[in-house]
UniProtKB/TrEMBL annotation, chain B:
Molecular function GO labels: potassium channel regulator activity; protein phosphatase 2A binding; protein phosphatase inhibitor activity; signaling receptor binding
UniProt biased composition (Low complexity): 1-11
Protein name (Swiss-Prot/TrEMBL): cAMP-regulated phosphoprotein 19
Keywords, ordered alphabetically: Cell cycle, Cell division, Cytoplasm, Mitosis, Phosphoprotein, Protein phosphatase inhibitor
Domain of life: Eukaryota
One of the GO biological process terms: G2/M transition of mitotic cell cycle
Length: 452, 131
């Protein structure tokens, strides 16, 4: 288990990650609302969406290749921004409902407009993002400034003509899927049938049709009859990328259940149960907490799935339930810091993970604005940092190394010097190219592979 | 090597009296010489002992229902509209009390008013990512 990079300058897969862009304010004082809470590329990778704690969504669009400006090729610039969710207070239950965007998921593009689902703790919204670059002029019944004309004064008729206008990108909420979750929504996942999607909270998973907002089907319910008997909660859920009847959900006890919707209407009984056997003698107070899965993602191929727990990332073969086929240590040096991490609540941080387009590499975040990349083919891993210091255009990222022992080398950082407030919880990998988006608190970093 | 090839799991590497009990009945704090020896080799168990030393009353079942229920109750604020309206009606004949200069915990005997609850306003400012 290596804590840092190997001999290769920037990790396996012959990646040479370079800084491309950074978005967001530079100042040290971070407003709570500006903290990025989700990052997601769309299916083509041309659009990149972020959601924040203030309930806002910002969408970036990749610039097309332009001969006159060769360096702006592949740059992401603001395309649209809107307020998706607002804070609410449920007076009946004395519950404050945060506007924080927990997840954004894009729908596959079917026409000129783009659609995405965004959710906070309680309500999922379908947003339509469309372009308008033409405007009609020459109406009969109203003036150019919109004032209505007196119909009796009109002596001649004309046909309105379409004139080009400056591109305007509009976002409008098309569906609001509300009142289906008693607990807090942690996941949404669009089905491969492009008609349905699931939403999961701590105890239940619901199936929706994108066209129908007043009804949803409950497909998983793990709420015990007596809440005193509650031992685990649902932490993440996702539909299989190709099999529209299959989905998985992970739990706070480190287990994953695969369910087949063809077997029964209520999928409380799983079809497959994935759990790694544990040595009972190594069990500690922290064991269950650090085994809690914070994210589960299918590979693009649909053959594997990846889970993220506090200290590691595991790759599972869907055909083998008994144990993962790969385990990658993210920051094993934290195992001897669990007491402090429990006291400052960091042990409950929920890290996400992602695959690259070809499923040959995986990425996840850590502390001190570090993020880790694992090459599944070469078995090499690297630690990189998202920082303003290494933000020169096209500057290569230098691998970072955390020193665990006594002797610290010049460019290494000791475990005790790590900044646990600088967490990288959300990362995204372009579906095809080697472009990655890394959310560092209130800043969004975009890195590209030099060879790209 | 970052990827660990899974080996055949041996569930009972250390046969001892402790491992004969189902894990839920095993003590969570080291109280035997064997477990204390584990402390030296296992950083996790060392951290557990540290935590137990600081918080001796920490529950036996760490992942149990108390912990989970706290998670499920996220966002709970104490405001009873019935109490509030009753108090408002009573106060019509009395002098209105001045609002406390600092916002204190709103629970118990004090009837909370909407002014006591921290104001949640939507972000009127555009995201700095779009700037």
């Amino acid at each position: 288990m290596a804590a840092g990079g190997g001999g290769c300058p920037a990790g396996g897969n012959d990646f040479q990650w370079c800084f491309s862009q950074v978005k967001g304010a530079i100042d040290e004082d971070v407003a709570e609302a500006d903290i990025i809470s989700t990052v997601e590329f769309n299916y083509s990778g041309d659009l990149l969406a972020t959601g924040d704690k203030g309930g806002r969504v910002v969408i970036f669009q990749r610039e097309q290749e332009n001969k006159s400006r060769p360096h702006s090729r592949g740059e992401y610039n603001v395309y649209s921004t809107f307020q998706s969710h607002e804070p609410e207070f449920d007076y009946l239950k004395s519950l404050e409902i945060e506007e924080k965007i927990n997840k954004i998921r894009w729908l596959p593009q079917q026409n000129a407009a783009h659609f995405l689902l965004s959710t906070n703790d309680k309500t999922i919204k379908l947003w339509k993002i469309s372009e308008r670059d033409k405007r009609a002029e020459g109406y009969n019944l109203k003036d150019e400034d919109g004032r209505l004309r007196d119909p009796f004064r009109i002596t001649a008729l004309r046909v309105p003509i379409l004139k080009p206008m400056d591109l305007m990108v509009e976002a409008s909420p098309r569906r609001i899927f509300a009142n289906a979750h008693t607990y807090h929504i942690n996941s949404i996942s669009v089905n491969s049938d492009h008609e349905t999607y699931l939403s999961a909270d701590d105890l239940r998973i619901n199936l929706w049709h994108l066209e129908i907002t007043d009804r949803s089907f409950n497909i998983v319910d793990i709420k015990p009859a007596n809440m005193e008997e509650l031992t685990e909660v649902i932490t993440a859920a996702e539909f299989h990328p190709h099999q529209c009847n299959v989905f998985v959900y992970s739990s706070s006890k480190g287990t994953i259940r695969l369910c087949d919707m063809r077997s029964s209407a209520l999928c409380d009984r799983h079809s497959k149960f994935f759990e790694e056997p544990e040595d009972p003698s190594s069990r500690s107070f922290f064991s269950e907490i650090i085994s809690s899965i914070s994210d589960v993602k299918f590979s693009h191929s649909g053959r594997y799935m990846m889970t993220r727990d506090y200290l590691s990332v595991k790759v599972w073969d869907l055909n083998m339930e008994s144990r993962p086929v790969e385990t990658h240590q993210v920051h094993e040096y934290l195992r001897s810091k669990l007491c402090s991490l429990y006291e400052n609540d960091c042990i409950f941080d929920k890290f996400e993970c992602c695959w690259n387009g070809s499923d040959s590499a995986i990425m996840t975040g850590s502390y001190n604005n570090f993020f880790r990349m694992f090459d599944r083919d070469t078995r090499r891993d690297v630690t990189l940092e998202a920082s303003r210091e290494s933000s020169k255009p096209r500057a290569s990222l230098k691998p970072r190394k955390v020193c665990t022992g006594g002797k610290r080398r010049k460019d290494e950082i000791s475990v005790d010097s790590l900044d646990f407030n600088k967490k990288i919880l959300h990362t995204a990998w372009h579906p095809v190219d080697n472009v990655i988006a890394v959310a560092a608190t209130n800043n969004l970093y975009i890195f590209q592979d030099k060879i790209n | 090597m970052s990827a660990e090839v899974p080996e055949a799991a041996s569930a009972e590497e250390q046969k001892s009296e402790h491992n004969m009990l189902p894990w839920s009945l095993q003590p969570s704090i080291p109280n035997s010489l064997e477990e204390m020896e584990d402390k030296v080799t296992s950083p996790e168990k060392a951290e557990e002992a540290k935590l137990k030393a600081r918080y001796p009353h920490l529950g036996q079942k760490p992942g149990g229902s108390d912990f989970l229920r706290k998670r499920l109750q996220k966002g709970q604020k104490y405001f009873d509209s019935g109490d509030y309206n009753m108090a408002k009606a009573k106060m019509k004949n009395k002098q209105l009390p001045t609002a406390a200069p600092d916002k204190t915990e709103v629970t118990g005997d004090h009837i909370p008013t909407p002014q006591d609850l921290p104001q949640r306003k939507p972000s009127l400012v555009a995201s700095k990512l779009a700037g």
